[in-house]
Amino acid sequence: MKILRLILGDQLTRSLSALDGLSPETDVVLMAEVADETRYVPHHKQKIALILSAMRHFAEDLRADGVEVDYSRLNCAGNSGSLTGELARAIAKHAPDRIIVTEPGEWRVLEMMRGWSEAFGIPVEIREDDRFLCSRGRFARWAEGRKSFRMEFFYREMRRETGLLMAGEEPEGGQWNFDKDNRKALPASVKAPKRARFAPDAITRDVLALVARDFAPHFGTLENFGWAVTRADALEALDHFIQACLPLYGDYQDAMKTGEPFLFHSIISPYLNCGLLTPREICVAAERAWRAGDAPLNGVEGFIRQILGWREYVRGIYWLQMPAYAETNALEAHRPLPDFFWDGQTSMNCVAQVVKETRDNAYAHHIQRLMITGNFALLAGIEPREIEAWYLAVFADAYEWVELPNVHGMVMFADGGLLASKPYAASGAYINRMSDYCTGCAYDVKVKSGAKACPFNYLYWNFMISNEARLAGNPRMGMAYRTLNAMTPERRAEVIAESEAFLDGLAKGAQTPAAQGQIALDL
Ligand code: FAD
Ligand code: DLZ
Ligand code: SF4
User: Fold this and answer.
1) Which residue range(s) make up the domain with 366?
2) Residues 249 and 108 in one domain
3) Within a domain: residue 205?
4) Residues with CB under 6 A from ligand 3
5) Which pLDDT score is estimated for 184?
């Protein structure tokens, strides 16, 4: 029996379920670079280059083991531009008896796959993606009958089930969560380690040239491209993180510093999400470092929680709730996305810095995504679809299954609190505490009203005022609403007027550095 096995650009794992039982004598593996996937959002140039180069390396690796790979390059003659079209061409060429795939990460692709058997008149087997630590079925069982979903409880079950950081039935260190020891501001004396980057080889150089030529209008630069594109290099990047960064990961997990985009973060999400690394091996490596005395428990637990907890949890929510999830807009936010999300031309130094780093690296760390660009989008009431498309495009690790719950749920509260118990809204004081951005800003973080006032200060209260009916009853918002209730009517009116003037100005570019007579960041 001849089997055609399709591998997608984020399924680059040799133990992938679609490859299980592969017979090199009879089977063919299909991999396809297609316009539909490279262009459905204006992906960052580095993201496209990373995926295409990693796909080409993966195909070479399979071939070296004697596997026949039918590989469609983006610009090869006859490339149909779609996964369905490339499958049709491969069926005509190889006349397989059946097709095997691993379930895709995104709803839209699964819908497409579900039509293939009928369209081609061949059995199509869609296998579970067992690279995740929690299957979709297992998550659905956990969620069943719960009124609200909270990551912390899910995470504890996952710790018990996997045995990670467990001492018998109890969590190591006597606590499930060590976050109170994390979240320190970064002292000037602490320097971030130099990060492992990988010089492009001939395959990557070809891909970089293709992306530079054919994707020029897409967001981002290619100059800093140093991503691993093979499993061997991704493992080296992981090893470097465990040795050089994990010891201080927890302490400075929430810190932000100008010119230090990576700090002590792992930068492994692009590898994890395209399949070069697996979540289990990363968690095991982190736990091993703690058991060997090379990293403290607060950081190791915090790191493992991101992968075993948050990553699995957001995937579970995505599959449980799609496709309706993407349609909700609980806070009725409808403002268009300002241009400065793409060009960085804003006098808000924090936002400009994060956009600049994202443009240069296809990366921003979690707190930059949540508390700078995310916080701004929440406070400004940006239309969820518009900000979601931005997040899906600009990061090398972005795939809808992980981007959507983070943006729709965690940042925009558009799901009405299904994923997060309260909106992550913050004024300038938080940004000032966790970063050095305010010292280089045209606005003054300590000023609450007037031309010099930090926009996050009045937008924060404006957000509370405009969402009072929806949020005042939330027990976790009690303190904010008690403070708001103590505000004089005059101050309320001032907050609303200043916010409206600022938000109206967004569409007109009124607060770009040029409009304000300042020098713009070099973007
Ligand atoms: P580290 O801080 O070193 O964390 C280790 C790993 O934990 C990450 O590699 C990632 O796999 C996982 N992780 C951490 N937080 C989360 C989370 N909230 N959800 C899922 N996994 C998590 N992550 C993506 O992989 N793709 C996305 O498209 C994405 N979009 C996001 C959008 C917003 C608005 C926010 C707030 C977060 C988003 N995240 C996304 C989660 C997180 O910001 C990134 O995973 C992280 O910044 C990647 O950098 P790192 O590998 O250095 O992470
Ligand atoms: C993200 C991406 C890109 C940019 N290009 C391709 C591609 O050319 N071929 C491919 O098979 N996959 C690509 N991907 C990853 C897919 O978008 C991903 O597999 C689906 O979104 C399902 O998660
Ligand atoms: Fe951002 Fe406000 Fe600080 Fe400027 S003053 S960097 S706008 S928080």
Assistant:
1) 340-515
2) no
3) no
4) 348-350, 428, 431-432, 437-438, 441, 443, 445, 454-456
5) 85
Domain end call among 127, 147, 169? 127
Residue with CA at minimum distance from ligand 2 atom 13: 9
Residue 282 near residue 271 (C-beta atoms within 8 A): no
32-59: string of b/e by CB count within 10 Å (b at 16+)?
Answer: bbbebbbeebbbbbbbbbbbbbbbbbbb
Residue-level pLDDT at 518: 54
CB atoms within 10 A of CB 79: 17
Q: Which atom of ligand 1 is nearest to the CA of 315?
A: 20
Q: Provide the domain count of the chain.
A: 3
CA 39 – CA 18 distance, rounded (Å): 25
Whether residue 346 sits in one domain with residue 301: no
Q: Given the CA of residue 34, which atom of ligand 2 is nearest to it? A: 8
The pLDDT of residue 511 is: 59
pLDDT number for residue 523: 47
Regions in the chain scoring below 50 on pLDDT:
519, 521-523
pTM for this prediction = 0.96
- Predicted confidence at residue 181, as pLDDT, reads 79
206: part of which helix (H) or strand (E)? helix 202-214
Q: What distance in angstroms lies between residue 500's CA and the mean position of ligand 1's atoms?
A: 32
CATH number of the domain to which 72 belongs: 3.40.50.620
435 CA to centre of ligand 3 in angstroms: 10
Pair 35, 181 in one domain:
no
Assess if residue 326 is contained within a domain: no
State how far the alpha carbon of 5 is from the alpha carbons of 8, 31, 94, 98, 216, in Å: 10, 9, 11, 9, 33
Ligand 1 pocket check for 41: Cβ under 6 Å: no
**308 found inside a domain:** yes
Q: Is residue 461 situated within a structural domain?
A: yes
- Domain of 436: which CATH number? 1.10.579.10
Radius of gyration for the alpha carbons in the chain, expressed in angstroms and rounded: 24
* One domain for residues 116 and 154: no
User: Which residues have C-beta atoms less than 6 Å from ligand 2?
Assistant: 8-10, 32-34, 37-38, 43, 48, 51, 104-106, 109, 399
What's the CATH code of the domain at 247? Answer: 1.25.40.80
Ligand 3 closest atom vs CA 437: 6
State residue 467's pLDDT score.
Answer: 97
Query: Do 160 and 188 belong together in one domain?
Result: yes
| Closest to 368 measured CA to CA, from 389, 350, 382, 343 | 350
Q: Is 276 in the pocket of ligand 1 (CB under 6 A)?
A: no
Of 263, 140, 285, the closest CA to residue 190 belongs to 263
Same domain, 86 and 181: no
